[in-house]
């Protein structure tokens, strides 16, 4: 037997995967994400930024073109549409509405591309936020006809609102100019607190099931609001949440590498022996599992994206060192990194890489300082360099929004 | 191929093509059908048209892309304005939900429709058929909670009975455990002692079947907190699955974890550290850093 090769990030393959996403059409399967093209655009640009490939694999003209495209999706009165798909050439503006996630993704993509947000309708976008906040403190996904707040109440939209506010208000939140109403921060914080579950993860709403994606959004939103410290009205205690978060790490079992049919054969129809074989966990000399990713909810399978949702939450809480970094890294690099580049959602044969998991896999590795990747700011989910560029912009440092 | 451009019903409509700009990001290889349906949808939306054919084109687009957000509200508004058949809409939604398991807009739209219909008949059965396919579907559980709140199903025996069925099938189904917690403890009122006792014994039964299943242990913690009872209420149970004086007989890391908290409650620091050490070294080494951190806090390092 030859010496096993140490796990490594196949950087050239990732770069070519992302350049393919950037410069050729995405497959028809992505039609179900057609209305979230600003989100897909963010993943693509931010991934290349983490890989350090944005400035040497794309030209200044190309980047200027993509910046223009993002502004092409800005609405005249502020905010961004999710995709050119809703553009109606100026007719029926209520059916071409601002979308909260798209507005956040537009801002962070622009920053990642080196834009100074000079053409962003800052006042208009900031003014949208309180309009999209409900009386319970939560936010909607988009603003419908007659300013109706549309979409579910969940942590994703709260996060987007808080991130937009943080980016546009500038240092210390003083950047806001007079006359622009702010969101109701207290209500927002108490909504987040109300969604803390009995096992101390965070759900989308009161009494929902704790979910790592919502937990990341909630923790990061609190950090963006500068309200992470537990208070009477806020989350119970970050210790409780840390316990729930670290509990998400789970060892890779042999069956996780099989396809559905094989699992069925070994577990349901198999013998005691095949069942044991299927749930076998390989460990090192210290009894630590070799591979261990994260699940998003209690009792679910490990999935690439949760290495970020959980890792990012812990990083914001300054507790990322409490996970088994090595086993997580090996899970990503040896079990879900795809040979054509990118990451698949799950280990196992025949699972193709997809844009979201490919970005979040890289982001998760960037959090633990994988060699060859730029560092990531967990709270904003962009590279440290991009965040620093924003914070160095004159309008950001010196407040009043133009 | 083309559906709309050759259809006399759509003759008077000039389709609005997508303006993708000069240097688009994330371009998708649309099928011809999708691109065409979208162009006709934009045309009627631009005129705010309210008509039967709006229901057709919105249905068409939803079939191909249920995550299109504005199309759902446009459809709902049109349907309500025309006084359309809401039960028929419900059937359409059933099909869409079964076909697109991961989509959340469908469930949001379903709430609007059910709000108008105002009759919950059949909803428990339909959500149950969704759980047949995926008993942990987040959107469907969220909708099921909405049903309980909206139609006041708190006391409905079928809710708890259904959870029992799901847990019998899969004792590790955390979504079902969570729904149980919601039904039992989700109202702003005190839960009687006999209900709390019942819940504790249900957890203990589940733990007996699978001591390493985290769900009932978490549920126990939650139930005790709701009832203002100390964790030490379940000290005996924990010691049964994690006898500290006989570490080779330990069957549950979760019992050890709770024991550490119980000893902290009682200010018995050494015992707490012992439980945490066992977790780090033997019973939950994947979280060794975390257990060592907890022990470190107690030791005051
Ligand atoms: Zn995932």
Automatic annotation (TrEMBL), chain A:
GO CC annotations on file: CAAX-protein geranylgeranyltransferase complex
Alphabetized InterPro entries for the sequence: PGGT1B-like (IPR045089), Prenyltrans (IPR001330), Terpenoid_cyclase/PrenylTrfase (IPR008930)
Single annotated GO MF: metal ion binding
SUPFAM superfamilies membership: Terpenoid cyclases/Protein prenyltransferases
Cofactor(s) the record lists: Zn(2+)
Protein keywords: Metal-binding, Prenyltransferase, Repeat, Transferase, Zinc
Residue span, Prenyltransferase alpha-alpha toroid domain: 9-382
Classification via PANTHER family: GERANYLGERANYL TRANSFERASE TYPE BETA SUBUNIT, GERANYLGERANYL TRANSFERASE TYPE-1 SUBUNIT BETA
Family to which this protein belongs: Belongs to the protein prenyltransferase subunit beta family.
Name of the protein this chain belongs to: Terpenoid cyclases/Protein prenyltransferase
TrEMBL record, chain B:
Keyword Chaperone: no
Gene3D superfamilies, alphabetized: Protein prenylyltransferase
Domain of life where this protein originates: Eukaryota
EC numbers, comma separated: 2.5.1.58, 2.5.1.59
GO molecular function annotations of the record: CAAX-protein geranylgeranyltransferase activity; protein farnesyltransferase activity
Any GO CC annotation of this UniProt entry: CAAX-protein geranylgeranyltransferase complex
Keyword hit for Repeat: yes
Obligatory cofactor(s): Mg(2+)
Enzyme class of the recorded protein, top EC level: transferase
Signal peptide boundaries: none
Annotated keywords: Magnesium, Prenyltransferase, Repeat, Transferase
Protein family per UniProt: Belongs to the protein prenyltransferase subunit alpha family.
Protein name as annotated: Protein farnesyltransferase/geranylgeranyltransferase type-1 subunit alpha
Originating organism: Morchella conica CCBAS932
